[in-house]
Amino acid sequence: MSSEESQTTTESASAGNPECAGPKVVLSEDQQAIFNRIAKNENSELRLLLSQYKSNVDFVDENGMTPLQHASYKGNKEAVQLLLDQGADVNSGKHEYNYTALHFGALSGNAEVCLKLLLAGADPKATNSVGRTPAQMAAFVANLEAVGTINNFVPLKDVECYTVDQGQKKALLAPAMLEPFHRFIMQVNIHPVRILLNVQKYGLLVADMKSIRTVLSEMMDREMKRRAEVNEVMAFKYHFLGYVIGEIVKHRDYINSRRDAQQDAKSDFVELFAKRVLKPSKDGTLDYLEALVRECVREFPYRECTIFRQMVTQLASKENVAAALDIARAAINGQRCFQDTISVCSSCGEEKPDKKCSKCKEVQYCDRQCQRLHWFTHKKFCARPSSSGGDAQPAVAKEIDSAEISDQLQKLVAG
């Protein structure tokens, strides 16, 4: 961490405390070299150093920061993983202002670093000297992707109980489905197309989808019946995921029934569902998506909770201009300032996609699959702006030419 970066962090952590210098710390040559490699993002050299360093990697600098905390602040996910593999303490509390590695990861804005730390056992509720959690620090510096990752994290132990028999009740999840399902429920993006693609990505289509919906329903109930702290947000999220999976299953069963009847052997339920979600009406409204989300909200069983009342009030308001999905997304992930300035995939709503339509360059996608799913509707409008703009200039030129020719003919006739 540079001296300027360190100053920025300690200023926010100290909240006006003038004592910023910690006690003098004496580091060995190898320990100082590890800090230097992390500061320069030299991961190959760091890997070599760690392979030769046989002691505990939780030594600290003059600010009480461990190598893991430095790597987290740099947002260096490879260095973070190397240190975790060496047994680094993910919840080290030696920092002078009680920042943990997750606090620093949140400040870096790297959601992958945050997830690695959380999976390694980082405490998302740990507070620093001014009482701020990692998610609150991320929100303070507008690292909203990190906020979403931390707030949507689910400890693995909360899912493991569904992979074992409980008395006469059989396990709802096969052990092989534990990790894929765990990854699935932690997704931040709740767009139905992204849910569909993640179901496919994590191999959940081969599982018993009815059992997966049952697990999500039970997890919803558990969040609402916690004695210590009810989590309405996660309860609604589990309900939302389960409802969308139910719609996906309906489309799969429909396609399978047509295949069995030999009426349609080529159709794919993934494309069928995606096209229904993305098909716009004449005024551009995504009618099926709007109806799906509204019905999902209506079927949420805990009608007395705050999150349900807020969504219903917004959806029923005559002044509301937001899409139902935006209202549900805000309920789960919080309001987003300057949402219009964030680029999203035109298919699945994933933020900051790195691909564009090769023809018009105006719509963005995560990858080729997202582009393929959206092409059925985008092809009607693709390249229209450029073609209409290109046609306008020749039209003007043609009018000028006609006028000149007419003028010349009149002169000839007059002469």
Automatic annotation (TrEMBL):
GO molecular function: zinc ion binding
Keywords: ANK repeat, Cell projection, Cilium, Metal-binding, Repeat, Zinc, Zinc-finger
Region (Disordered) residue spans: 1-22
SUPFAM superfamilies registered for this protein in UniProt: Ankyrin repeat, HIT/MYND zinc finger-like
Compositionally biased tracts (Low complexity): 1-15
Pfam (any one): zf-MYND
UniProt xrefs under InterPro entries: Ankyrin-MYND_dom_contain_2, Ankyrin_rpt, Ankyrin_rpt-contain_sf, Znf_MYND
Alphabetical list of SMART domains matching this protein: ANK
GO CC terms, sorted: cilium
This protein's record includes keyword Lyase: no
Subcellular location as annotated: Cell projection, Cilium
Name of the molecule in the record: Uncharacterized protein
The organism of origin for this protein: Anopheles atroparvus (European mosquito)
Upper taxonomic lineage: Eukaryota, Metazoa, Ecdysozoa, Arthropoda, Hexapoda
